[in-house]
Amino acid sequence: MTQPRVGRRAFLTGAALAGAASAVDAQTPPSPAVPSASPPAAKPAKAAPVGYTFLKPAEAAFVEALAAHMIPADELTADGVALGVPVYIDRALAGGWGKGDRLYRQGPWPQGTPNQGYQLPLTPAELFRAGVRQANAYCRTTFGRAFDRLAADRKEAFLLALSRGQAAFGAGPPAGAFFDLIYQLVMEGFFADPIYGGNRDKASWAMIGFPGVLANNARNAEAYRDGRRYSAKPVSIADMS
């Protein structure tokens, strides 16, 4: 999407600063800057598994089109598909989070207000599956074909309408709740640790200068609060194991 794509540059800088600040241990007094030690050599990225666990063919086509559109290839990173975002989404939906293992699911289910959070009786996986079906139905009615077969400008028009509450599904889950879910999943797949399937080769971390899981990040977040650039090669969970 144009808005998330354009906005992601500004968002990335803010995300890096906010993430670094939140890493500071409130119980630890400020420490002097710790020299950037050489991190352990990064292990080669493992190849993505063949096929998907949760996604059906039409859903996989939707997710791949969505990831490539929201995270297009540019001078900074490859596109969302090459970065493994669909793999992350597939694993998330197939696992305990997608199954709603920690959701309250006994009702009642009246329509809530925005500040009440998620109010649907559907698990994330159920919301996703129903939402893709309704999204493709909307695109066929409006544009003549499923989302993954639309030209870029029509993908953009659909996603913008969805995000602004201007595209309503005839049946199934609320369109706004579906957009919130897919946007969350794409962003998580782009920024999460590569061990979860996305952010392949730590590309998004390298782009924003996020050093990863090194133990001295908290102290450096405090020491470099004055605006100096802190450079370090990103280190993932897998690199530390």
General description of the model:
Helix 2 (57-70) packs across helix 3 and helix 4 crosses helix 6 (175-191). The model is unreliable at 1-6 and 8-49 (pLDDT under 50). The chain is mainly alpha-helical and 241 residues long. The chain has a domain at 2-15 and 47-103 and 114-209. Helices cover 46% and strands 0% of the residues.
Features:
globular, single chain, 9 helices, 241 residues, disordered N terminus, 0% strand, mainly alpha
The major pleated sheet works out as: none
Helix content range of the residues, please? 40-55%
Query: Outline, from the CA principal axes?
Result: globular
Low-confidence stretches: 1-6, 8-49
Blueprint of the fold:
Elements: H1 2-22, H2 57-70, H3 85-94, H4 124-143, H5 152-163, H6 175-191, H7 203-208, H8 217-223, H9 237-240
Quick structural summary:
Helix content is 46%, strand content 0%. With 241 residues, the protein is mainly α.
